[in-house]
Amino acid sequence: MIKILRPLIFSLVATTTCALPVYAEEGGMAPSFVYYTMQPEITTNYITPGKKVGFINIKVQLMLEDPTLEATVAYHQGLLRDALIDIISKEPEATIKSMSGRQAIREKCLARLNELLEAETQQVIIKDLLFTKYLYQ
């Protein structure tokens, strides 16, 4: 009995999951945001209590309000990278290594990048900032 139902269940699941993207495309609503990945990844050091140097490697993605503003962010990427490195390199080890500290750093970075872009472009461009890679040593 189970051998008979297994192919039926598999085909039902396969056709249902294959059909989902078609329904999403038929809706006609394109997403009103885009993710911009900052390249290359950022590697910098952070403050440690002893003489040992701590390193952090992050990959940052920016969620942009408007897909047409991706070129603007790419143009200002040097400024944004400098701000991220400045913020992260001033953080103590305890903040870098804790989940709540990581969230605080993310929020601080988001606010600073929006502040810089607003000064340059007179508009808030970044909706959210994500650390898609966060390695520390």
UniProtKB/TrEMBL annotation:
Signal peptide: 1-24
Biological process terms in GO annotation: bacterial-type flagellum-dependent swarming motility; chemotaxis
Membrane-protein topology: Single-pass membrane protein
Principal cellular location given in the protein's record: membrane
Record key words, sorted: Cell inner membrane, Cell membrane, Cell projection, Chemotaxis, Cilium, Flagellar rotation, Flagellum, Membrane, Signal, Transmembrane, Transmembrane helix
Family: Belongs to the FliL family.
Protein name in the entry: Flagellar protein FliL
